Structures are given as structure tokens and as C-alpha cells.
Amino acid sequence: MSILSDSEEALLARARAIGAEFVCEPESVAKGVREYLRLMDKGLSEPGQAMTMIPTYVTAVPNGTEKGVYLAVDLGGTNFRVCSIDLHGDSKFTLTQAKTPIPKELMTGNSKDLFSFLAKQVAYFIEKHHSQTIDAATPTNFLKLGFTFSFPVDQVALNKGHLLRWTKGFDIPDAVGKDVCELLQKEIDALGLPVRVVALVNDTVGTLMARSYASPGKSGTLLGAIFGTGTNGAYVEKLSRIPKLKKMSEESGTKFDHSSGVMVINTEWGAFDNAMKVLPDTPYDRALDKNSVNPGMQMFEKRVSGMFLGEILRNAIVALMDHGLFKSAHGTSIDENGPLFTAWSIDTSALSTIQADYTSEYTLTKQLLEQQLGVSAATTGDAMAIKTLVYGIGKRSARLSAIPIAATALATGAYENYKKAKADAVPGQEVEKIDIGVDGSVVEYYPGFERYLREALRDIQPLVPGAAGLEDAIRIGIAKDGSGVGAALIALVA
Ligand code: BGC
Predict the structure, then answer these.
(1) Nearest-10 Cα torsion for 37, 38, 43, 45
(2) In this predicted structure, what is the pLDDT of residue 140?
(3) 111 lines ligand 1 (CB under 6 A)
(4) What does the record list as coiled-coil region(s) (predicted)?
């Protein structure tokens, strides 16, 4: 006998129906991989594509023997971090860091206010941790700073790049087209700090470098990926597979070292399939897009990353309120001016908490509803219905995340090489897996994220040519604080 009332059963049935709209079937993931492979080639051939495939001019990944002290700053989607990194040369490092949330009003104001705020945080940090450097400052004695800037930039040199567009809710029109290193250096100089911005790095490139420095294997990491506020990946590509590079580097006059035969490419996969040929779409996704600062852009990111999952959930909850959610006779009440009625007010961490709630009465979910979402006295049926939505949204995000990972391993030949090495190995010899470094709140804290992602990798094995056995060949490791350490590693090269 069910312990739920008839009305609760009806509510749950409705929640399951909404949850089913988020199901991402194997064929849908496989279609995604095929389309990703197509857009990858297009982006490597022609400049100006939505999935931009940006050449970074980084032509080598570290091997763990690098040494020195460097400064790094990281403007992500939510926080600004300043750190100094002491690389010890044995795959280890010490990191000192300070983190500040970026004030919301600076995300949509003007560039001067944002960059002078950033420069001030650098000043506080070096006053606190590197005061001797300031005292000893001479025209030749300055700290080298790597700038991790987690937005799409047309990189023309290691320390020069023009902002292409904002993402993740930022909208500061006067900065678009400007060199973001120069914007930061100007404000640093205005404060008289002995600091030079020597490298501009996307967070994914930093993650790739950091993972490659620290990863267990002897060979380098193939891909660095962020699944956090936003999502994106950077990987090691053969120069011969980047037809647009010759023209682009001639136009910008950028020289680079060809000897390794490879270059790190910042894919900007958040913009994968903006045309919506293969990505799943629901009324809740459409409502989110319509309400965003960049409708029609970052369509993959809007289905995968942390900034958006909470808002998809909010839209689905609102839809479920027409079908009995929070309508029990037990005096459930909703704050009509509260988070459920305010766009962008549900944090992804809420989804992680609900997903991880295995208490029999859904106590954690009820608490969260009460404390963060303005719903008091929700019933167990309400909480179960909400968990059903969360499950659908979170699992879809993880399964979609398998698309760029599979496509990158296939397109670069990394998986072919792995298979060859395996065939050539003597019995008992271990073959090194394809290494992938990841960072970001979603991959780190969303329960089951890697498991669902791996399930999707297995699902596509029979559906995508050359993918049989792929999942087993992939090693995924967290590159904690990757963007800071990675920026330091690139500053070192600079
Ligand atoms: C940005 C990328 C960044 C990613 C992860 C996206 O919105 O376009 O440049 O790497 O977020 O932070």
C-alpha cells in the first residue's frame, strides 16, 4: 500500500513526466558527438565560428619539473582569486590564495570599475603576503603575473587578447574588443604595484597545464575541462589539424614555437550547437534562454553548467505548482516574493543537496526549501517531486558533458593511439590512459556526475564509429585550483 495520498501520487506522476523531458537517450548523446566532431573541424578551419576553437599559442604542456614563484589572478564566473604559487619542480607546489566574490553590480557595469576592483585585490594580497617584494621593487624586480580570464578572448599573443563576448551573466559592453591584459595592467600601474601581467590564460588552459604538471602519468594531459559556473574545455591539437592558424598568426604577426607540432586550443564549447540541431530542449530551457543576457548563445553551457541548472529547476518547479506542488492541506506556504519567484535565485549547490538527500522523510530537502527557497512546511510528496526534477536536470547535464570528452579523444587520435599501444603491449604491461583534468563546482560536488558521464560514454560506444571501448581508456582527475597553478605555469614560460 502506498503511503502517499492520491493527490500526492498525481503530483509525483506529473513530476516524473517533467523529469522524463530531461532524459537524454544514448542516440541523442551519439548525435551530439557526431555534430561536435563536425563543428570542431569547422572551428579549426574557419575563424569567427560560434564554437570558436581559439589558438592559445601555448605549444607545450609541463611535465612537473618546472620551478619558481609566480603570481596568478583568476576572474571566473563568481569569484575573483589572487594567489601566489611556489612550484617545487617535483610535481608539487605550495599555493597561497585569497578569494573574493565579485560584486554583482560590477558584472554589468563598466570595465574601469571592474578592473580597478581587481587591481585593488592584487594590492591587498601582495601587501599581506609579499611585502618584501614591494620593498625591494626596482624597475627590473617585479612579480610576474598570469591572468586567468574565463571568458572567450581572441588571443593574439601570450599576454594579449581581445574580449570576444561576455558569458555567465556578465555584460560590460565597453570591454568587448579590448585587450583585457592591458585593462588590468593599467589599473595595476595606477596603484604603483611592481607587477607585470605576462600571460593571459583561459581557466580551461590553466586546468590543462596544472593537471599535466601534477598528473600521475608520464605523458601529458589531453584535455582540461571546467564544469563549474560555466563550462568549457582546452586540449592539445596537432598544428596540422588547425588550418586557420597560418592566416591568423600572419595577420596578428604572432610568432610561436613550431617544434612540438602541437598547440593548445581553447574550444569555447559552451557555444556548441547554438543552432540547436542536436541539443535537447524543454520549455524550462527556453524560458531560461529568453530571460538570459545572451539569448541564443552558449546553448550547451545553458544545459550543463552551474549558473543555469538552478534556473532550469526553478522553471520546472513553477510549472509543477500548477499540478499540485505545495498545495497540501497541511498549511504549506510559499513566500510570493521569495526565490521561487525570482529569476536566477536558485544556486546549483541546492541541486547537489537535494540529489544527495537519502533521508526517508526528505528532511534535507524540506530544510533547504524552508531556509533557502521560502517554502515552509513542504510535504514529503513535495520533496519527492522536486527530487525527481533535480535528478532529471543533473543527469542530463552529466550525460551531455560526455559529448565533448568523447569527441576530443576521437578527433585527436588519442584513442587510436591508446588502442595501438594496447595491442603492442606485452602481457601484464600497463598502458597509460587518456588523461583528462577537470575542475568546477558541478563536477566536484554534484553527486554522481562522473558516474553518469561515464555511463553516457559507454552508451555511445556502439553508436559512434571507432568508439568501442572508449570509456575504459579515459582517466578523469580533479585539477584542484587548476586555473591558478596553470596561469603560473604559463607565466613561467612567458
Ligand atoms: C567561458 C569560458 C570559460 C568557461 C568556464 C564560459 O562561460 O566562455 O571561457 O572557460 O565559462 O569558466
Answers:
(1) 110
(2) 64
(3) no
(4) none
Report which DSSP code applies to 74: E
Q: Is the whole model's pTM more than 0.90, yes or no?
A: yes
- Contact present, 45 and 243 (Cβ < 8 Å): yes
Q: Which of 154, 203, 273, 459 is catalytic?
A: 203
pLDDT of residue 204: 96
Q: What is the per-residue pLDDT for 1?
A: 44
d(CA 429, ligand 1 centre) in Å = 39
Residues of the chain short of pLDDT 50, as ranges, are: 1
Residue 154: CB within 6 Å of ligand 1?
no
Please indicate whether residue 81 is annotated as part of the active site.
Answer: no
Instruction: Of 53, 309, 415, 43, give the one whose Cα is nearest residue 204.
Output: 53
Q: Are 75 and 149 in contact (CB under 8 A)?
A: yes
Closest residue by CA, ligand 1 atom 8: 151
270 lines ligand 1 (CB under 6 A): yes
451 is catalytic: no
Q: Kindly list the strands in the beta sheet with 143-149, ordered across the sheet, starting from the edge strand earlier in the chain.
A: 93-101, 79-88, 67-75, 143-149, 195-201
153 close to 54: Cβ distance less than 8 angstroms? yes
Q: Is 150 a catalytic residue?
A: yes
Q: Is the CB of 8 under 6 A from ligand 1?
A: no
Ligand 1 within 6 A of CB of 202: yes
Q: Is 482 in the pocket of ligand 1 (CB under 6 A)?
A: no
Short-list 198, 264, 276, 280, CA closest to 232: 264
Q: Whose CA is nearest to atom 6 of ligand 1?
A: 230
**Cα–Cα dist 309/445, whole Å:** 13
- Residue 107 CA to ligand 1 center (angstroms) comes to 15
What is the 8-class DSSP label of residue 270?
G
Contact 322, 416 (CB under 8 A): no
Active-site residue, selected from the candidate residues 84, 111, 150, 212: 150
> Strands 375-376 and 333-334, how do they pair?
antiparallel
Q: For residue 480, with 0-12 CB atoms within 10 Å meaning exposed, 13-18 middle and 19 or more buried, which class applies?
A: middle
Cβ atoms of 181 and 147 within 8 Å: the answer is yes
**Spatial separation of the C-alpha atoms in residues 349 and 6, rounded to whole Å:** 32
